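Customer escalation, tier 2.

The customer says the design service returned an amino acid string that "doesn't look like it belongs to this structure." They asked us to rerun it and document both sides in this ticket. The original structure tokens are below, unchanged.
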């Protein structure tokens, strides 16, 4: 894998991970267009590092807002923590539940197959992108029609709203193309939560679930039968660190862009993009990618 490929994937991951357009879908398409093997140990290591870079971008970007919103008092922090724990619990139960069901049914005949391989196919990514697009469009149009009074009353992140957002996040985990941030922020907006609160809570959940996701990918890396035979993997780690830094910078730019579009009422444009991207992915599939 060349340095140029690493930089390209880092930019794609950094932008798409934090914009509501599904990073997994964009990375899979980029890998196919670049002729890379997503299942290779270097690629798995690179994706682990890129996820880590975007996680630090989220922390750096939202830390001041989280500190003033959720950490202003012990009571506020406790309330916030309970909501994060509840949402994450629902995410884990639903996300892992769906994965286990698919592994015991669709992948039953191939015991060594993994769900990442199933949903890495473009014919599955395209409809997932379309679903994300329709959800984002619905939330964007509803938000633009909502009165200022309704929005001011919708500023409370209740336990019910947090739980529903966690459930939706769980639905997104197994399916590449179904944007996690797009679905969770849109869900909060559809339930009447102020868009800035929906955004901040969505990315707080992202910071919580990223370490387990990274850990799972790291376990996949260790379990690969040919990892020990990959003598250049250690030297590739340095290039992966460079990729993580590029993803960090791209992630900060993406978050700034996201906040500007969200606050200016242009959230629906991300939905239009997802629908167009779904068509593009479908076309690539028919072209043989």
């Amino acid at each position: 894998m060349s340095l140029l490929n690493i930089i390209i994937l880092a930019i794609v991951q950094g932008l798409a991970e934090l914009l509501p357009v599904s990073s997994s879908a964009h990375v899979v398409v980029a890998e196919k267009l670049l002729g890379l093997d997503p299942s290779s140990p270097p690629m798995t290591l690179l994706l682990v590092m890129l996820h880590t870079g975007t996680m630090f971008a989220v922390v750096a970007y939202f830390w001041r807002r989280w500190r003033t919103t959720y950490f202003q008092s012990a009571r506020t922090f406790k309330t916030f923590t309970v909501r994060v724990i509840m949402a994450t619990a629902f995410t884990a139960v639903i996300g892992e539940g769906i994965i286990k069901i698919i592994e015991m049914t669709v992948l039953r005949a191939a015991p060594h197959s993994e769900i990442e391989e199933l949903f890495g196919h473009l014919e599955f990514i395209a409809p997932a992108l379309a679903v994300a697009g329709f959800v984002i469009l619905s939330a964007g149009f509803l938000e633009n029609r909502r009165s200022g009074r309704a929005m001011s009353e919708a500023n409370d992140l209740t336990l019910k709203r947090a739980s529903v957002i966690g459930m939706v996040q769980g639905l997104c985990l197994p399916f590449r193309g179904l944007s996690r941030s797009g679905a969770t922020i849109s869900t909060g907006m559809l339930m009447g939560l102020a868009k800035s609160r929906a955004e901040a809570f969505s990315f707080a959940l992202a910071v919580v679930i990223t370490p387990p996701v990274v850990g799972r990918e790291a376990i996949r890396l260790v379990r690969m039968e040919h990892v020990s035979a990959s003598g250049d993997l250690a030297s590739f780690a340095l290039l992966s660190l460079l990729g993580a830094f590029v993803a960090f910078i791209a992630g900060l730019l993406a978050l700034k862009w996201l906040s500007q579009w969200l606050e200016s009422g242009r959230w629906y444009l991300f939905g239009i993009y997802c629908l167009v991207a779904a068509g593009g992915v479908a076309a690539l599939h028919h072209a043989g990618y």
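Tier 2 assessment: The sequence is consistent with the input. Confidence is low (pLDDT under 50) at residues 148-153. Residues 35 and 161 are 42 Å apart (CA to CA). Sent an explanation to the customer and offered a walkthrough call.
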